[in-house]
Write a structure and sequence with these properties.
The protein contains 15 helices and 16 strands. The chain has helices at about 15-35, 45-55, 60-65, 85-90, 135-155, 170-185, 190-200, 210-215, 230-245, 290, 305-315, 340-350, 365-375, 385-390, 410-420; strands at about 35-40, 45, 65-70, 75-80, 100-110, 125-130, 160-165, 250, 265-270, 280-285, 300-305, 330-335, 355-360, 380-385, 390-395, 405. It binds one RNA strand of 77 nucleotides through helix 3, strand 6, strand 10, strand 11 and helix 11.
RNA sequence: GUGACCGUAGCUCAAGUGGUCAGAGCAUUGGACUGUGGCUCCAAAGGUUGGGGGUUCAAGUCCCCUCGGUCACCCCA
């Protein structure tokens, strides 16, 4: 084979696709129960959307976007995340005119040009929600609760919820100022990455994993001490909602998410089993994004979770997933001569919504039985010249080995009854 | 983008310091049971050892390049 899947991408083969289906179906059913409705936006957007929405200074925009020009020379970008596209669609279709908040969810692949690593790929899948048009702290609570509910629902047990508040446009500037006042005199003591962070976005020094840097930060001003009255109250109420629902969480003042649009509540759910890329999902409030995209001031909140990471965590925790829906019936023919009649019978069975299949590999009868066994069907049908001559079909119960004869035209009905 | 390790049949892996070292298990197909599954046994098929170049009498085994993977950093899902 010459051509392989591009770096950082992978084929999701049937076995794994089964997990995908499971995760997506659970999300759909749960999110809809919380009142969210699906939105499907394009895989690519005008590059400008992400530059404006996510922020020029972010790593995503700086170095991770799959950007290309179309035949008319327009700059397009494969979406690196879905929040900006959802907000764009929200504005483009005047969903502002609907009752607020508008609660949406999405499922699909995202693209970021990064060096692949465990839990990080160039094409990866996200499941996420966005609730646009409300400042209510209860909505923050709902979104976080939904995220946790979902992860528990699919079978995960070991989860850590981290929570922080990033303040708003009123209180963050003064905090950033005092943080810079603290950092500048010590800038020489920080690692080279932090030096860069201090210049670009001082808040991010909190993200550094190096102990030396963290020690230097032990007396640094904390955003939580600098929240304005409104943000303080909001954050307090969000926590009250979480406590009310017995959601354990830790306040993590260094939870500074890398996208510029976050305000106030930010959160992340971490799995202890995952290695360096251990965030299963995360999100927060983004009260400035809608306005930043050209709309009126509109508060919003949401989260995204990584399908691959959730799947990895499920595997690590040894969660057994419901078996892929398999076939119920396998039709075996004794000789080639019965193929047309077998084909017709199979089709009639399928028309009754019964999952059934037959052999197309020219297998011997025994080979067909082995296949039937491997497929885990409940019943095997035998069609040979003897049966056909009498207008019947032999049905074998694969568990007990018992066999009965059923008239051909009654086979679908018989199966329907016995498969119940 | 930086660093470390790695790349042998579909899958998981074996092949002392370069010389019958290209193998096993699982999976696949067939057979033992010529109209019937799950166990067992037998057999077959399957690899230009990621690709390219080099050193050598001789390379899966050494060197270089390239493509990919893994893990970490940066950062994020």
């Amino acid at each position: 084979m010459e051509i392989k899947a591009p770096r950082g991408t992978s084929d999701i083969l049937p076995e794994k696709a089964g997990i995908w289906q499971f995760l997506e179906r659970r999300a759909i059913s749960l999110f809809e129960r919380y009142g969210y409705r699906r939105i499907i936006t394009p895989i690519f957007e005008y590059t400008e959307l992400f530059r404006q929405g996510i922020g020029e200074s972010t790593d995503i925009v700086q170095k991770e976007m799959y950007t290309f020009r179309d035949r008319r020379g327009r700059s397009l970008t494969l979406r690196p995340e879905a929040t900006a596209p959802v907000v764009r669609a929200f504005l483009e279709h005047d969903l502002l005119k609907h009752s607020q908040p508008v609660k949406l969810y999405y499922i699909g692949p995202m693209f970021r040009y990064e060096r692949p690593q465990a839990g990080r790929y160039r094409e990866f899948w996200q499941i996420g929600v966005e609730a646009i048009g409300s400042l209510d702290p209860a909505l923050d609570g709902e979104v976080i609760l939904l995220l946790m509910h979902y992860l528990k629902d699919v079978g995960l047990k070991h989860l850590q919820l981290h929570l922080n508040s990033m303040g708003c446009f009123k209180c963050r500037p003064s905090f950033t100022e005092s943080l810079e006042g603290y950092l500048q005199p010590r800038i020489g003591e920080f690692c080279s990455d932090c030096k860069r962070r201090i210049k670009l976005n001082p808040l991010r020094v909190f993200d550094c994993k190096k102990e030396a840097c963290q020690n230097l930060l032990s007396n640094a001003p904390r955003i939580l001490d600098h929240l304005c009255e409104d943000c303080k109250v909001h954050f307090h109420e969000v926590q009250e909602y979480l406590k009310m629902m017995d959601l354990n969480h830790v306040i993590n003042p260094s939870l500074v998410r890398g996208l510029d649009y976050y305000t106030r509540t930010t959160f992340e759910v971490i799995s202890p089993h995952l290695g360096a890329q251990n965030a299963l999902g995360g999100g927060g409030r983004y009260d400035n994004l809608v306005e930043g995209c050209g709309g009126p001031p509109t508060p919003a909140t949401g989260f995204a979770l990584g399908t691959e990471r959730v799947a990895m965590a499920l595997e690590k925790e040894g969660v057994s997933l419901p078996k892929d829906s398999t076939l119920d019936v396998f039709l075996a023919i004794v000789g080639r001569d019965q193929k047309p009649d077998g084909f017709a019978l199979l089709s009639r069975i399928r028309e009754e919504d019964i999952a059934a299949d037959m052999d197309y590999g020219g297998r011997s009868l025994k080979g067909q039985m082995k296949l039937a066994d491997k497929l885990g069907v409940s019943y095997a049908l035998f069609l040979g010249s003897k049966e056909l001559g009498r207008g019947v079909c032999r049905i074998r119960d694969m568990k007990t080995g018992e066999q009965v004869e059923v008239k051909l035209e009654e086979v679908p009905k018989w199966l329907k009854i016995h498969l119940k």
